[in-house]
Amino acid sequence: MFCHLRPLRRFCLEQIRPHGLHYSRALSGAEAVHALRPFYFAVHPDFFGQHPREREVNENSLKRLSVYLENLQKPGFRSLKPTQLTFYVRETAQPSSDAQEPSGSSGFRAVRFTLHTRDLLSTVLYILNSCSLSVEHIQSLDTNVHSQPLREAKRTPDRPIKWDKSYYSFTGFKDPDEDLVQVSRKETTLTSWLHINGKIAVKKLKNSLPLRKELERLKEELCNLLQLSDIRWQRSWGIAHRCSQLHSLGRLAQQSLETLQRAKGCTLIFTDRSGVSAVGHVMLGTMDVHHDWTKLFERLPSYFDLQRKLMLLEDQISGLLGGIRVVYIEELQPVLTLEEYFSVLDAFHRRLLHSRASFHPQSLRGLQMTLNSDRYAPSLHELGHFNIPTLCDPANLQWFFLTKAQQARENLKRKEQLKVAEEELIHTSTEQLALEKLYKEPSISTRQMVACCDRLTLHPRPALRGMHLTIAVEASRQKAQALSPAPEE
Fold first, then answer.
1. Per-residue pLDDT tens for 51-63?
2. Beta pairing, strands 282-285 & 275-276
3. Which of 68, 272, 435, 484 lies at a C-alpha separation of 20 to 30 Å from 158?
4. Which long-range CB contacts under 8 A does 104-108 form with residues at least 24 apart?
5. How far apart are CA 417 and CA 279, in angstroms?
6. Residue 369 near residue 386 (C-beta atoms within 8 A)
7. How far lies 11's CA from each of 5, 17, 18, 33, 163, in Å?
């Protein structure tokens, strides 16, 4: 007898449903990744090789974003704590007028936003709009998303929506403002962090020990079988993922052992693309198939010939520049293949040959320089090496070397002293804190590591016993020098 009320009930529900939720099904994880491709391209750490601090901030923020997106896809989740993220976004196009911070001459800008969305679609749209990136491509996804939410997403409101407190009391939703206030009031310290995460870290470490031993066994067997100098990973993949990659390489070795042994004496790196790196490491792309890996090993003799030509080119440049040594620093420079780096050296060498600048023989002996194609002015790094643009005028370069040579030698000497102090403090800290392992992420400088170990040893902490401790940048505060213990999972 209540059948006549059904249309009225459906009409009422449609009236109270928010416009932003008008879509027939949720965005899948794969579709979210595809929709965020412009964002990943703009913030990928590989493009920040010249800016270690910004690269580390983006790496840590991407990890936290990944956790947030994974939690959104878990069935039965209720709500997530607001997550504050900071990214350095490359200016791949003309920057919009609402950029949060001007990029200046650096080529990137800082963008800060807080995630408090409850589904993948709104999260993706919020991220893209916060970074001033287009959302047009989302219309092409097979998500049956109506055009209305996209139009709504493009239009930035004049002010954020502020719901009355009664709304949260009635619906049971969490007030994001209150969560942010609580987070800002509660200062996270190393002691409080260990109190919360110490037992979890120990449990994860204990559970991972069998897999860690398996990883070491596989690595040692392959190094001996292929006579490799070392096997490394460019990304922070999990232990299970690394074991899988070694198993895959082992199967290929059983099929083509003689071909793979052409890498004798080399360091092998699992990374994003196959090839040979600027320093001669063999790179295996994790997305490539065995056929691609085999082709790479077959071409190694030609790569070794190119590497010898590259070393000769470095010597010729050194002779033209007063004996200064050309170096490539993996931690501070963009990831280049051997061919790409040879092209950079060759272009710079040609400019030197056509210039009239002359350096006194061996006047710069003992100094170091790196070549960079994305810089416009020479500079002296705090570690003592010169950062030289490939398009730098040789005449100006001569004057710059002469005026900065003494400071460069002092920086190099200080670098060596800090390196010795770092090794001693790491050994002391590991023993004093009873750590299983103490190491740092590549973006942490020697100076930062020394200061960090000093702070750690001032107050011995039994909660660290038997743990793995990583020293990293604390992205949430944008500090280049901070403690962020992260036991490996």
1. 777 888 888 888 8
2. antiparallel
3. 68
4. 105/376, 106/51, 107/374, 108/48, 108/51, 108/54
5. 25
6. yes
7. 10, 10, 13, 35, 24
